UniProtKB/TrEMBL annotation:
GO terms for molecular function: transferase activity. Residues 6-167 form the DJ-1/PfpI domain. Keywords: Glutamine amidotransferase, Transferase. This is Glutamine amidotransferase. The keyword Ligase does not apply.
Length: 174
């Protein structure tokens, strides 16, 4: 279990893309990492787009990037809500400053855009936010997974297997 002892935050809010949250969470857990779900409200249950629940164990305000090894941002419509909170943007900025793995898939790129960390970074996302990514200074590629340093990005649910592996590899330092 190459990720034993590692800790990861997974951000949640209503209308997250169910697979884009749960697949990476389970993938990281099966390699031994501890994953904490975090939302605006601690102990609140958030519902995915397709009805799969996710209960926040922590609120964004009580987390510190220094206590974690990586962060996962799921897609869906949740990123458009999540990016409006300064606590989330600070977390993402702190992970970026520390060069710790940041995983984002589909519409999750909106959170990284709002955190202002994409200038000169090569990424992918759902094609629907390509213009947003490029306008934020990112170099956008139409590939299943793009890893640029500590930022791991993927397009959509069919890309989850290589995305999960790439994120785990980054957490393992490989």
């Amino acid at each position: 279990m190459r990720l034993t002892g590692k800790k990861v935050i997974a951000l949640v809010d209503d209308e997250f893309e169910d697979l884009e949250l749960w697949y990476p969470v389970y993938r990281v857990r099966e390699e031994g990492a501890e994953v904490h779900l975090a939302g605006l409200e601690k102990d609140k249950t958030y519902m995915g787009k397709y009805g799969v629940p996710a209960k926040a164990e922590y609120s964004w305000d009580e987390l510190d990037a220094a206590d974690y090894d990586g962060i996962l941002v799921p897609g869906g419509w949740a990123p458009d809500k999540i990016r409006r909170y300064s606590a989330v943007l600070k977390l993402v900025q702190d992970f970026n400053a520390a060069k710790k793995p940041i995983g984002q898939i589909c519409h999750a790129g909106w959170v990284l855009i709002s955190a202002k960390i994409l200038k000169g970074v090569t990424v992918t996302s759902t094609p629907g936010i390509r213009d947003d990514m490029e306008n934020a200074g990112a170099i956008w590629k139409d590939e299943a997974v793009v890893t640029d340093g500590h930022i791991i990005s993927a397009r959509r649910p069919p890309d989850l297997p290589p995305y999960g592996k790439a994120f785990c590899d980054a957490l393992a330092g490989e």
